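User: Hi! I have a protein structure encoded as tokens and I'd like to know what sequence might fold into it. I'm fairly new to this, so please keep things simple.
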């Protein structure tokens, strides 16, 4: 799923330009619900008079404190270098042992990718109740951070190679510290 824009005075939705897509931290695909999930959604939501029960799960102060904790999580320099290596491999695959990807990548991930990969890996470590980031945290979030930032060539499209395929190859090739 990709964010779309609705131009004023035009009907329909249109893909965002790469520069705008790059501003999204993550791209997460959401599938349709299963039959049982669909049934449950319908039963809960097909009502006209009942207001849904909404309750807070965190206060604004708790969210700000959690953000401070993320900033304080330890990330080793080798993990930082791994993040940069992944991003650089998307830009210059030939320099990272991925010569076959060179004709398939039009543009690699921007510096926002390394920033957001760092932040998302920190968040993943936080959710795992750890005070440090591992390469596995980086790998766990890398696809969601990078897939929408890799722009493929027409040749890649013709060969039915997707940005997901490119990121998978990068993750399977770039050495983990």
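Assistant: Happy to help. Inverse folding works backwards from shape to sequence: for each of the 177 positions I chose a residue that suits the local structure. Here it is:
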């Amino acid at each position: 799923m990709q964010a779309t824009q609705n131009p004023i005075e035009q009907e329909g939705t249109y893909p965002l330009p790469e520069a705008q897509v790059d501003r999204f931290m993550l791209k997460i695909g959401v599938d349709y619900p299963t039959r049982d999930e669909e049934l449950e959604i319908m039963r809960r939501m097909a009502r006209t008079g009942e207001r849904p029960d909404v309750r807070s799960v965190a206060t604004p102060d708790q969210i700000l404190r959690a953000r401070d904790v993320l900033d304080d999580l330890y990330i080793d320099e080798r993990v930082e270098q791994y993040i940069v290596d992944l991003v650089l491999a998307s830009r210059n695959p030939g320099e990272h042992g991925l010569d076959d990807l060179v004709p398939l990548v039009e543009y690699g991930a921007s510096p926002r990718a390394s920033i957001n990969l760092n932040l998302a890996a920190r968040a993943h470590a936080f959710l795992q109740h750890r005070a440090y980031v591992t390469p596995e945290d980086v790998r766990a979030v890398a696809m969601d951070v990078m897939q929408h930032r890799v722009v493929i060539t027409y040749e890649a499209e013709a060969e039915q190679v997707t940005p997901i395929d490119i990121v998978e190859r990068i993750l399977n090739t770039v050495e983990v510290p």
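A useful reference point when you look it over: Residues 74-177 form a domain with the Helicase, Ruva Protein; domain 3 fold (CATH 1.10.8.80). Feel free to ask if any position seems puzzling.
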